[in-house]
Amino acid sequence: MLTSIRWSHRAILQIIVSSHWDWDSRLRAARADVDAYFVKPIDMSALADKLDELAHRRQDAPSRVLVLDDSRVLADHYAEVLSGARFQVHVISEPRQVLAEIAEFSPDLILIDLYMPECNGIEVARVIRQDPKSIGIPIIFLSTEAGRMQQINAMRSGGDDFLTKPIDDWELVAAVKMRVERFRALAERIRLDSLTGLLNHVAFKLQVENEISRAQRTAAPLILAMIDVDHFKGVNDLYGHPTGDRVLRSLSQLLRMRLRKSDYVGRYGGEEFGILLPETDPVYAIKLVDALREDFAQLKYTVGSDTFTSSFSAGVAVVMPDDSAQSLIARADEALYEAKN
To answer: What are phi and psi of 117, to 5 degrees?
Structure first.
């Protein structure tokens, strides 16, 4: 069965619901370019998670592309072409600017001219790859170099693709789009918690570090809230781990629905979650977290003939000028345990 869901006036999601999971059925679904494939009986939690994932994918901010080319005319042309394809583009002409731009702009992909006066693109790529945080960013080299061995050597330095100048506009957009989509999909898999779809512990902590640096540079307020589901072990012991998982997923869905796109939420560990609120007034942040607490307490869960509710406690901390991620998280955790007690 093919189910179509109108997502907006411009887009329709297509989801396959089938009794079969064989090769021929799945191949037909792939050829129909459907968005998701489910086998009967449908796991409703999995369906809800998939719809949420597709919603966020359609609402994603434009992908960010950093262009490094000593020819400003060519660089500006690439920027114009990519901007027309809904990419957000930054252009630089000096290799020594690339590290600062990566830190500030956080590109999803970097286009680098292979031959430049100060240093070549291979050397720039090697410098970029020295930082573990930048290892996964796709790098596409641009050059008039047509020799295959030279192209292979360039790729060995950490490049992911090679485009030979002159480049057709459509070819540039297609190459960048394919690489960015693949990069984002893999990055999301690595960064997300498999149960809740939220940022995992490592990814959330890195985001805290990044937002602290930005807040301290701009003197903007930054709030961290740590929340913990109350008596969660009792839920697992009484109703089983699948029910406990339902509670955690429902909390994650509530947080995603109620928070802004500019906010960050992660599963910090077990039943503990973190909420990062950039450029947020502390008084408003406390009211928001308290409203989330009240809304979560209203959700009901049914197991057999039993119905129960859950709750969470929270601690809120405001970033200070000398804060690190460790100190900010520690203060929010301290406030959380005070709330617990």
So the answer is: -60, -45
Residue 84: partners with Cβ closer than 8 Å, 6 or more residues away: none
Both tokens of 179, joined, read 């690489």
pLDDT per position as a tens digit, 283-332: 999 999 999 999 999 999 989 889 999 999 999 999 998 889 999 999 99
Q: Could you give the CA distance from residue 319 to residue 130 in angstroms, rounded to a whole number? A: 30
CA 339 from centroid of its chain's CA atoms? 30
Q: Write the single-letter amino acid at 108.
A: D
Please give the share of the chain, as a percent, with pLDDT higher than 90.
48
Q: Is the Cβ–Cβ distance between 214 and 204 less than 8 Å? A: no
Q: Exposed, middle or buried: residue 242 (CB in 10 Å: 0-12, 13-18, 19+)?
A: exposed
Please say whether the beta carbons of 198 and 192 come within 8 A.
yes
**CB 91, CB 79: distance < 8 Å:** yes
Spatial contact of 332 and 315, defined as CB atoms under 8 Å apart: yes
**Full-model pTM:** 0.61
Query: Which runs of E-coded beta strand occur in the chain?
Result: 2-6, 12-18, 36-39, 64-68, 88-92, 109-113, 139-143, 161-164, 222-229, 264-269, 272-278, 300-303, 306-309, 312-318
DSSP helix/strand/coil, 59 = coil
Euclidean distance between CA atoms 68 and 94, whole angstroms: 7
Instruction: Report the C-alpha gap between 90 and 114 in whole angstroms.
Output: 18
